[in-house]
Amino acid sequence: MTAVSSLPLQRSRHSRFLEAWPPLTLVALAWVALMLVVALGADWLSPFHFSALDLRARLQPPVGFGGTWKHALGTDELGRDVLSRLIVSIRISVLIAFFGTLIAATLGTTLGFVAAHFRGRVEWLILMMIDFQASVPFLIVALAVLAFFGNSLVLFVALMGLNSWERYARIARGLTISANEQGYAGAIRQLGASSWRVYGIHVLPNIASTLIVSMTITFPETILLESGLSFLGLGVQPPLSSLGNMVGYGREYLTRASWILLFPSAVIILTTLSISIIGDWLRDRLDPTLR
Amino acid sequence: MSQPLLEASQLTRHYKVRRGGRLFGHAATLRAVDGVSFTLRPGRTLGLVGESGCGKTTTARLVLGLLPLTSGEMRLDGETLPKAGSTRWRELRRTVQMVYQDPLAALDRRIAVGRQVMEPLAIHGIGTSTVERRDKAMAILESVGLQAHHFVRYPHELSGGQRQRIVLARALILEPRLLVCDEPISALDVSIQAQVVNLLLDLQAKMGLAYLFISHDLRMVRQVSHEVAVMYLGRIVERGDPDRLFSAPTHPYTQALVSAIPVAARQRRQRLILKGDPPNPVNVPTGCAFHERCPIAVAHCRAETPLLRPLADGREVACHLAAASVGGL
After folding, report:
1. Which residue out of B109, B117, B170 would a mutagenesis test of the A interface target, given it has the greatest number of A Cβ atoms within 10 Å?
2. Residues of chain A numbered 37-56 and touching chain B (CB < 8 Å)
3. Which of A91, A151, B197, B312 is the least crowded, having the fewest Cβ atoms under 10 Å away?
């Protein structure tokens, strides 16, 4: 009796697991986890130092295309190991994109809440800043800042954090105003709750799904912006390398040694795609009404 | 007679607006609520009726202190209502609570309803342990007719009536003395309306609550109220005992409202259908605000604003003609 009844139960448990953790999401999570492991353990994982030259083995193709296992992903024009450079690039790019996105989300959401809470002149000022940010090409601002203050990794990360905060600010402000005007936030406030409670416990979790989806859009954008700036020579400075930096310099050897460019490009695509998939999944998972 | 719980005297709420919509449009004043006075005693219900846009909800928000008064005074237990958001105002939430028209909008969709019912206790620091608060929330859920298993549900998993009970439970857990009900039943099915109204009546009998009951469902208002005030364009035009007011309305506007109550009987009855829309509250007609739509208006109505005057039977009415006709009897 128990053997018979346990079978459908197990099957439903299995399908329930698949429903909660779709295979594509698992793959995406695994990829992002791999990226994090690579970023954290870059020093131990890379077979060579990322700037070590091997002039006798320049432009060597990867394994499977006539290369050797010594340089599994080939070498670049100076004989530097592509795999080692890729690992270090992943660390730098993930660091910049992660902290850049985090700074942008925190700053934008906070300013959005402040605008929605105080209204009036404070809101005008913040809206003006948002419009300014949205209307000036960020690349120009970044160029100006980097030209004036020189380049350091900390400054660069902070600059990436200023990139798309206005999007979070707009979302947070709009959703908070609508929640305040009528509905749950007004009701909680009416119960005598402090503003901290209203925003922290009620409004933030309710608008988090929108913000998270927005974060999964800005994260790839930050990687691409970093690539663009590095390509212009204003981002990560050689010999240090980032994914965009590698793509930028690999471009010159596109026809002769495409692997220099293709591997970092593939990493950019897979990482951004994975994060989008995870963002979608998180949004559904964070919303109890869709469960 | 007991001490009044709520005294509202000459409440006004005006909004500055620009007419014409252009940059240089001249400033104008929108009189949402224009000199409303009433008192409410513990355990009593004041029904507030009127058509959309007449200032019912604004009055409710003024009573709660959610909107600042343009002029007038609101006293709760003899104490002037402090500014919204101040510490004292937050403390007073334990005395005055609100029930909303749309319970789904008033609840946080992401939090189990039980925790939402417990939340006011945490806000006001009542009860020390979570267990104690949970027990209290369970008890209050039971008193509004819900079961323990509803505790872990989310708002979207409940029916409209159950949601409204949750909103009620959340308001009642603070043991308030005044409950402002802003159209509490208009979003519910007819069968559930009766349940919620009966629940409100039971709770009033049990806990001695006072209600400010806002609705446009005149029959419900008649059923629950001890006193009814009819509003038109931000002013009270007639006030009194619900049975007398609805069986023999004196103000022409109340007559029109009452004649619009649907009846099951087949008998044909004279329906008073008002012409036109209510005037724009930015541009209130001179004299009696109702004279443009009033079937019996005379020249005098255009010139002088009628004040709320008591009639012989204890009712109050703001109409030159009604006061004259009844006064002459």
Report:
1. B109
2. none
3. B312
Instruction: Report the alpha-carbon distance of residue B303 to residue B61 in Å, rounded.
Output: 32
Q: Of B160, B175, B190, which residue is a domain's last? A: B175
Domain total in chain B: 2
> How many domains are there within chain A?
1
pLDDT band for position B22 (50/70/90)?
A: low
B27 or B20: which leads in pLDDT: B27
CB–CB of A184 and B108 under 8 A?
Answer: yes
- Statement: residue B1 has pLDDT above 70: no
Residue A291 confidence (pLDDT): 56
CA distance A125 to A133: 12
Residue B210 shares a structural domain with residue B308: yes
Mutation to test the A interface, candidates B110, B170, B180, B182, most A Cβ within 10 Å: B110
pLDDT digits (tens, 9 = 90+) for B311-327: 878 888 888 887 665 54
Long-range contacts formed by A23-29: CB under 8 A, 24+ apart: A24/A277, A25/A277, A25/A278, A25/A281, A27/A274, A28/A273, A28/A274, A28/A275, A28/A277, A28/A278, A28/A281, A29/A274, A29/A278
- E strand or H helix at A277: helix A259-286
Q: Please check whether residue A262 lies inside any domain of the structure.
A: yes
Counting as low any pLDDT under 50, the low residues of chain A are: 1-5
The answer to whether residues B171 and B316 belong to one domain is: no
CATH no. for residue A167?
1.10.3720.10
Tell me the per-residue pLDDT of B219-278, one tens digit each, with 9 for 90 and over. Answer: 888 889 999 999 988 889 999 998 888 888 888 888 888 888 877 766 666 777 777 777
3-class state of residue A106 by DSSP: helix
Cβ–Cβ gap A205/B110 under 8 Å: yes
Among residues B150, B175, B200, the one where a domain terminates is B175
Position A265 scores a pLDDT of 86
pLDDT at A2: 46
* pLDDT on residue A106: 92
- Residue B269 is predicted with a pLDDT of 66
Each residue of A214-247: pLDDT tens digit? 888 888 788 878 878 877 777 777 778 888 888 8
Question: Are B272 and B134 part of one and the same domain?
Answer: no
**Is the CB of A184 less than 8 angstroms away from the CB of B109?**
yes
Q: What is the DSSP letter of B156?
A: G
Give the closest-approach CA distance of A189 to chain B in angstroms.
Answer: 8
Q: How many CA within 13 A on the CB side of residue A34?
A: 12
CATH of the domain at B236: 3.40.50.300
B145 and B105 both lie in a single domain: yes
Cα nearest neighbour of A117 on chain B: B85
For B108, the closest of A190, A206, A287 (CB atoms) is A206
DSSP character string of B9-66: EEEEEEEEEESSSSTTPPEEEEEEEEEEEEEE-TT-EEEEE--TTSSHHHHHHHHHTS
Which pLDDT score, from 0 to 100, does residue B21 have? 58
Question: Chain B closest CA to A183's CA: distance in Å?
Answer: 4
Interface contact flag, B108 A194, Cβ < 8 Å: no
B156/A206 Cβ within 8 A? no
